[in-house]
Amino acid sequence: MPKTIIADAAYGNEENYVYLKEKQIPGIVQDRTYHKEKSWAWKQDISKVGNWDYNEEEYWTCAGRAEAYLPVREPHAHRERL
Fold first, then answer.
1. What is the reported pTM?
2. Which residues contact 62 (CB under 8 A, 6 or more apart)?
3. Is residue 52 part of a domain?
């Protein structure tokens, strides 16, 4: 088994992130939307949950300051070094 996995965005999906985490394999795998998320247009799009604020009381706040109780998932949790 390799010591570390390095892969491009073609392999950046939830299934692969989970596999690496379960097998405890360190991985550097770019997310498929990495370049899009860096664009100005993406950062200004209030429909993207990733642009909302996450509160430790387990709710999200959109740009309009409305609170949304969605399934708890840390923003960009899959981007942690696995």
1. 0.48
2. 46, 52, 68
3. no
